Amino acid sequence: MLPPAPTKSGSDPESDAPRRATLVSVRDLVKVYPLGETEVRALNGVSVDIGEGEFVAVMGPSGSGKSTFMNLIGCLDTPTSGTYRLAGADVAYLERDALAGIRNRQIGFVFQQFNLLPRTSALANVELPLLYAGVPAAQRHARAQAKLAQVGLGDRAHHHPRQLSGGQQQRVAIARALVNDPKLILADEPTGALDSTTSLEVMALLQELNRAGITVVVVTHEHDDHIGGVARLASRHSIPVWLTHGTLTGFEALFDGIGGLHVIDNYRSFAIGDLQVDPFPVPHDAREPAQYVLGDGTRKLGVLTDTGCSTPHIEAMLSSCDALVLECNHDPEMLRVSSYPQKLRERIAGRYGHLDNGAAGELLARLDTARLKHLVAAHLSQENNRPELARAALAGAIGCEPGWVEVADQDNGLGWRAIS
Fold first, then answer.
1. 83-120: per-residue pLDDT in tens?
2. CA 327 to CA 307: how far, in whole Å?
3. pLDDT score for 224
4. Is the dihedral angle over the CA atoms 293, 228, 390, 266 positive or is it negative?
5. 147-168 as b/e: b if 16+ CB within 10 A
6. I need a surface site. Which of 133, 176, 187, 380 has the fewest CB within 10 A?
7. Has this prediction a pTM greater than 0.85?
8. Beta strands 38-51 and 22-35: pairing type?
């Protein structure tokens, strides 16, 4: 769930700068989805103001309610309770047609998968919102051409999506979002399907639009959120960092000037003091992802919290551990009926996404667990999983009581454990 009061970059309550007019104002926003006899509370009392001309990032792990929040402020859905005012107008509980009109006139959308019509030119794709708004053809063509030129694709107007690179397709999508001159741009993981260089170009374009006065809200689960936190912590407290070559080359700018960087090989053990670390590669949608077995020569802790599927090498590395931390990210049925966009659901459930409870249990059943004294289920989605489901899946795999399985949750983490 999103926290009640997200902190926005650059906000300073003590600043003497003139206050921006409020464009988005939500108070006590709640969204609950029925799931059989239970309910999934995707948002729980979110309150936030976004001023005109701000650039705001909504960040959090999968299942934290980011996409639900985006759907609500984008007038794609209505809340269970709470208020939402857009440019001063109460829009929370309007009828479907009224919400569609607001989306067409005041909000532009940019999605991870571009959502372009494949057999239609870039120009015609950009014209679509104007077509729905009833704008005459000549005006449609002129405005769409101007927006393509604004994003650097004026000479690609008659190309079809398959003739464009991923970055160019996303620029077409941004031009389409701009064509009605909206007050607000909502970008839902806009760089999720792009390489690192193109991602930077797309983000630079969004920042340029923001400098021109457009309010931009970006929802992201990019791994640079995680890596950026590591870089800030290392810089602030002079902490050494061990990372793969792929991670470093993808985020060199974040670590510029930070000492104590150690590049590791996914297949080569290394030591940190008396601690031996055995990394191993995993199938996950990140740059050269790795997980780890930590040991002191007699005891071993295996950690697997980000992988889309198991492999024989993963199972060889995690066998004979004294303690295991295993990803139980989601329940497949809860994910299937969740509020997540279809592409995000496919990504999470895919071979490079995250383990569901059943897959984690099947992996565990194939391990040598004769020495296992501690078992922790981790990285549970708050929207698409429940602790009792994760416990049951892991307990069933090794024939223990569900209560013996610990759960690390996103709010409280996990207390210290002594591995003896």
1. 999 999 999 999 999 999 999 889 999 887 788 999 99
2. 8
3. 58
4. negative
5. bbebbebeebbebbbeebebbb
6. 133
7. no
8. antiparallel
